[in-house]
Amino acid sequence: MRRGSFKTRIIIGLAIVSFAYLRKCSQQTTNPYTGKVQSISLSPQQEIAIGLQQAPAMAQQHGGLFPNENYQKIVDHIGQKLVNNSIAKESGYQYEFHLLKDPQTINAFALPGGQIFITFALFSRLTDEKGNLNKDMLAGVLGHEIGHVLGKHSNERITDANFWKLLTMGASVGADLGQIANSIGQQTLLKNGRGDELESDELGVRLMIEAGYNPIYLINVMKILKAAAGPNRVPEFQSTHPDPENRIEKIKDAIEKYS
User: Fold this and answer.
1) Does residue 240 sit in helix, strand or coil?
2) CB 254 within 8 A of CB 205
3) 110: β partners
4) What is the spatial distance between Cα 26 and Cα 45, in angstroms, rounded to a whole number?
5) Within 10 A of 24 (CB to CB), how many other CB atoms are there?
6) What is the pLDDT of residue 225?
7) What is residue 64's DSSP assignment?
8) Under 8 Å CB-to-CB from 87, ≥6 apart: which residues?
9) With bands split at pLDDT 50, 70 and 90, how would you rate the model's confidence at 39?
10) Is the pTM of this model over 0.85?
């Protein structure tokens, strides 16, 4: 009975693993903006719905929206200019740009479907030598985040996470390999996360050029991020983000490519 039970578990486990792989293969599609083959499980409408649903909670985590309407209008204007004068216009996503109140966290991020955020801590550092807001630098930040949306990175992460959950379940049924499968999945997600950042940098450069902004200022943004991280920043191999110095070199390549 024990041998029969074990064989049954192996068969069930292999069936689950096979199903996971077949489903992931069936979800593969070529991204029209990056040319990359991705496994995608959410429709654009589902991405938009997720972004809209999560946007209030994300804003609340950063103290809500910044109360200065003039600053918000600037963010809206530059964001929409990037969308309406570039490849992003044809994507069908519902782009909205939010300036968050958070005065300490230097960050910007995007939810699937077009919800894009920048903290005041980062916004306030995007200045020229006279202390005035540099709109090209702001365009670089927002263009990078639009790149995450066009790259369908959240969609891909959700699809990958579901794949590894199913694979882990199958491995756990067939043998005590669930922890190993889960570990491999985490490593894969980490590696792809770095690739996402570089891909979004390149898309950001392209959007900036198409919308009439100077992409060289995206390099200035990288320098701000490097300075903010300080000398004790996490080594690149331990981070989901590439080192700013490596990103700068890739940005220079993208500027040459699209100029």
Assistant:
1) coil
2) yes
3) 116
4) 20
5) 18
6) 87
7) S
8) 33, 150, 206, 207, 210
9) confident
10) no
Type of residue numbered 200: S
Angle at 39 between CA 33 and CA 41, to 5 degrees: 100
**How far apart are alpha carbons 99 and 66 in whole angstroms?**
6
- Separation of alpha carbons 149 and 204, rounded Å: 11
The first and second tokens of residue 242, run together, are 């590439």
Confidence of residue 156 (pLDDT cuts 50, 70, 90): confident
Higher model confidence: residue 138 or residue 161?
138
**Tokens read off for 241:** 């983000």
Q: Give 15-23's long-range contacts (Cβ < 8 A, gap of 24+).
A: 15/170, 16/166, 16/167, 16/169, 16/170, 16/173, 16/174, 17/167, 17/170, 17/171, 17/174, 19/166, 19/170, 20/163, 20/166, 20/167, 20/170, 21/167, 23/163, 23/166
Q: What is the rounded distance in angstroms from the CA atom of residue 254 to the CA atom of residue 4?
A: 59
* pLDDT above 90 (res 195): no
Q: Does the pLDDT value for residue 236 go beyond 80?
A: no
CA 13/CA 151 separation, integer angstroms: 33
Q: In which residue are the tokens 């809500």 written? A: 64
Q: Which residue has the higher pLDDT, 211 or 42?
A: 211
Distance between CA atoms of residues 20 and 191, nearest Å: 21
Cβ contacts of residue 125 below 8 Å, gap of 6+? 106, 224, 228
- Calpha distance 44→254 (Å, rounded): 27
